[in-house]
Amino acid sequence: NARLIMGNKLFVHHCGFREEEEIIGLSDDDIFPPELAEQYKNDDIKLLSTGAAKNNIIELFPNYLGDPTWFSTTKIPLFNQEGKIIGLCGTCQSLDESSQFVRPYKELAKALDYIKENYHKKITEEHLAQISCLSVRQFERRFKDTFKTTSHQYIIKLRILKSCKQLLKANKSISELALDLGFYDQSAFTKAFKKYVKTTPLKYQKKHLK
User: Hey, which bits of 8-53 come out as E strands?
Assistant: First the structure.
């Protein structure tokens, strides 16, 4: 039923709880924002049905404050003695923390910090490369090798994740929010939002503000 049956202390605290007992029996919907919970559930269902492990996937994962952080995630199926899949086990490692010690994250750490602080502004690859002390070509290649996406797509995804949280506050119009997030206009925001969340900002807002 896609419910948690255990978790170590770091995972429990990262999700905003104090004791393991508090998370037992909860689903992703009980812990994470709707757009992420749906993604996690779909991944789990696919793994449980196919048995195909998910190794070292770089994805956004919110911390206990709700701020998105990049993690390396691995999920593997668990089998009983008859070879039937009875669950899954997952590990998450924060790239923000590991980037201080492990290449290639160390080379990109300053660029990632800059993006996190300035995602709502215009950011060029030239500037990110300069921050990382790399040529533009080196930066593009290492960023894509590490995160399996371009820096531009990374920034757009971060803006969308931030927008999901802000849409539920309902204190700004969608057009105002689009400009605050760094999109050219509401149309550009809606197009990007629909690409990653599979619905429009307005429909998302109406669904989750009931």
Answer: none
What pLDDT does 100 receive?
45
Measured between alpha carbons, how far is 85 from 96 in angstroms, rounded to an integer?
33
Q: Cα(28)–Cα(40) distance, rounded to whole angstroms?
A: 7
Provide the token pair at 149.
Answer: 């996406």
Task: Give the CA distances from residue 194 to residues 155, 183, 200, in Å, rounded to whole numbers and listed in that order.
Answer: 16, 14, 5
The radius of gyration of the chain's CA atoms, rounded to the nearest angstrom, is 18
C-alpha span between 135 and 149 (Å, rounded): 18
Handedness of CA 78, 53, 158, 13 (dihedral sign): positive
Determine contact, residues 209/170, Cβ cutoff 8 Å: yes
CB atoms closer than 10 angstroms to residue 77: 18
The helix (H) or strand (E) run that includes residue 31 is helix 28-31
Q: Report in angstroms the alpha-carbon separations of 94 from 56, 59, 79, 101.
A: 11, 10, 27, 12
Q: What pLDDT was estimated at residue 82?
A: 94
At residue 34, the pLDDT reads 75
Do 26 and 4 touch, CB atoms closer than 8 A? Answer: yes
Does the pTM of the predicted model rise above 0.70?
Answer: no
The CA distance from 204 to 210, in Å, is: 11
Q: Which residues of the chain are under the pLDDT cut of 70?
A: 35, 59-68, 95-105, 170, 210
- In this structure, what are the phi and psi dihedrals at residue 30, rounded to the nearest 5 degrees? -80, -15
